[in-house]
């Protein structure tokens, strides 16, 4: 006899085997593992990593220095804010748009790769990394809000302007793909015997 709980509503069933069935409470299709979970999440993470490159390399902002408009990437923008002695804004932009997305991507990639090939990370630690990513995932849209908010605040000084385009689109996609990759991943796979 097996005890199986619905991943959606957590109702517990007694079953003879792992055949899929429909939850009588919430109509969720109960499967032993989410279908192709690891493959899909890994693919989404790799896409997000590739999109992170144009997000960093293409101009995201327009900065007016001595009356001259220059386009700058996120990192050049951070440097400009440091030059203007706006250390707090520089720190927030750097953390929200460079560090947090990077931590999430590297963490997810590490977990997924370690499940594909046998890297020695203890399951508990993999689980911890994942929980951490999920935790900062709750704040992940902050990346975009911070940049949007700063754009509107700082624009008053006519120094700084967010421009749309390739970098901004790539950046938004990085955030969204990372969220979907983490959300769709079936953490039970971490504990499967390999
Ligand atoms: Zn259910």
Automatic annotation (TrEMBL):
Coiled coil: none
Keyword Nucleotide-binding: no
InterPro entries, per database record: PqiA-like, PqiA-PqiB_transport
Transmembrane segments: 38-58, 87-115, 136-154, 166-185
Keywords tagged on the record: Cell inner membrane, Cell membrane, Membrane, Transmembrane, Transmembrane helix
Compartmental location: Cell inner membrane
Main location: membrane
One GO term describing the cellular component: plasma membrane
PANTHER family noted in UniProt: INTERMEMBRANE TRANSPORT PROTEIN PQIA, INTERMEMBRANE TRANSPORT PROTEIN PQIB-RELATED
Record's protein name: Paraquat-inducible protein A
